[in-house]
Amino acid sequence: MKSIQSLNYSVVFNKEGHQELSSLLSSNSYSKVFILVDKNTKKYCLQKFKTKLNLDFTYELIEINSGEINKNLETCIQVWNHITNLGGDRKSVLITLGGGVITDLGGFVASCFKRGIDFINIPTTLLSMVDASVGGKTGVDLGVLKNQIGLFANPKMVVVDEDYLETLAEREIKSGTAEIIKYGLTYDKSLFDEISTNNYKNINTLIYRSIEIKNEVVLMDPKENYLRKVLNFGHTLGHAIESYFLESTKVKSLTHGEAIAIGMVCESYLSTKIFDLSIEKLKLIKKTILEIYTKVDISKNYYPEILSLLKHDKKNVNGQINFVLLNDFEDYKIDCKVSEDLILESLDFYNS
Amino acid sequence: MKSIQSLNYSVVFNKEGHQELSSLLSSNSYSKVFILVDKNTKKYCLQKFKTKLNLDFTYELIEINSGEINKNLETCIQVWNHITNLGGDRKSVLITLGGGVITDLGGFVASCFKRGIDFINIPTTLLSMVDASVGGKTGVDLGVLKNQIGLFANPKMVVVDEDYLETLAEREIKSGTAEIIKYGLTYDKSLFDEISTNNYKNINTLIYRSIEIKNEVVLMDPKENYLRKVLNFGHTLGHAIESYFLESTKVKSLTHGEAIAIGMVCESYLSTKIFDLSIEKLKLIKKTILEIYTKVDISKNYYPEILSLLKHDKKNVNGQINFVLLNDFEDYKIDCKVSEDLILESLDFYNS
């Protein structure tokens, strides 16, 4: 597959991606190579990665605990101390091998170590391939607030290879699917159709087209001043729901995709109420999403806390919550204000 | 005084600086104004700042503990939590009012909050005026390692006003003087002569010329790939000595300038040994510095730990310690390697 050129780096696929990375590492431009993994990617992806690289090179492995709950500054401090103690310097490189937690946190860690060292992303989940692989968003959570601390910083290169998905649980594949549905609803309905009818037969194409769309948006608006906000469809309510379920002791955590899927149903409802998205299309979106994701009970008791989390969303300015809504498939509106009552109604609609 | 244009911001002086800042704040481009202070700048500088601004505006004050010992990630986390709880958003601005700890840490905090908000630096110490006011280096320490975690990030504007120095202790003035001596030795000997003969009569000129020199260097090499390293003269050994005295329970801490002054004596010695700096000039440098700064006892017992700290210097690559040395006044050499024996000899020379 043809590589995708982003701001000042490329997303390179499969065999070619690993070959390019091999050349880069064997060119001796780096004084030391660090590989950041978690327990899962150490077990399932590291050997595969080394075999694919087909290169005799020395590296230092840094392992962190898995899961969003560890995507925080405490983990960053651990990694910074590791890199320091292992003799990392300004010419070191950090390879992140993992899902969004690893690539987001690793990119942030690398960008702040001695005022910035190179990093290379090898996303190993569907979610991180279609979402985190381009766009330069790095960061970690602050308490319950997702990605509150972070930077725009670009990797040196990104290698995407669907072989890493082989050992991924179905639930994790579905987590990435939500982002593909988002690209489908906002940008290219064929992706939505493919997901709803074809049961992932063309996963390669889905990944490639998703990255292509995200890259197109990011190149036009790297720092999210306007257009890039479209990528937040489903994410305003989705993030708040994800945070709530992550922190609450009463309920089990949701994956990012499960939360975003709920967010897309709710925000499609808002779209129908405020703009021209037809009721038929709204129903189709809800039906498609509920065929993929088990219905979650969002009790009315959770509403106040979810609203409060919404108010801390990074996208807010002057306390105003901003939504991306749909006027139709492939036709979106940015910076939409919605009343609290309507937000709660949209949660009722999901529950109904 | 004419403002100095840096990368994408200006250093504006005295009354004009405060007027420009007033206009910026009253233009309503910011959703919320945060002012970061420590105990000292809250007491001595905040009222002065507000009087000089002559503007009726609302702000949130964030106070942190004074001193290098608090320039760490724990303090950053406190400030990030404060800003979050006070409703900071992407259109907030952080004004840093203080010395290097406040401006370095504040710049880092702002640059990572929700992937970056504007910050404005009001340096209130001589050191931060002549050193931290331009160059875009932000950061905090990791354990004993100075500025190990940080970023290149530029403020929106910098306001420099020597009125803030009025309440500064003599020791703090001297801390800034070391950087002026550095500019003198490496770039413009008239600054060195002025310091050694004129007892700060023209402090305004010293500040202005120092910022001018630093800016010239930074504009040519913003990310410290080569030329900018000249600004590290005295800092390789100086930083290690500063870290040692900061952490050791056996000795009292030194100011940054006191440590850099020792570093300059030692590195001048290395310059004489390796390059063409004459013994007369070496003696003049040592004499001038010891007239300003009380001699410090650097016991041979400290040498091993100082050497070990040197090996973690950010400027090292492949474990090689890099020095900036002098071939003569205003004539420097970058990336010089020096044997451990000679490094220890240079400490002996300082002690002699």
Task: Describe the protein.
Two copies of one chain form a homodimer. Chain A is of the alpha/beta class and 352 residues long. Chain A folds into two domains: 4-165, Rossmann fold, CATH 3.40.50; 170-351, Up-down Bundle (Dehydroquinate synthase-like, alpha domain). Chain A contains 14 helices and eleven strands. Chain A has helices at residues 14-26, 39-44, 46-53, 73-85, 100-112, 126-132, 170-186, 189-198, 203-220, 235-247, 256-274, 279-292, 303-310, 340-351; strands spanning 4-5, 10-13, 32-38, 60-64, 92-98, 118-123, 137-142, 145-152, 157-160, 323-328, 331-336. Chain A has a seven-stranded mixed β-sheet with strand order 1-2-9-6-5-3-4, sandwiched between helices. In chain A, strands 7-8 form a two-stranded antiparallel sheet. In chain A, strands 10-11 form a two-stranded antiparallel ribbon. In chain A, α6 packs parallel to α7 (170-186). The longest helix of chain A has 19 residues, at 256-274. Chain A is globular and about 60 Å long.
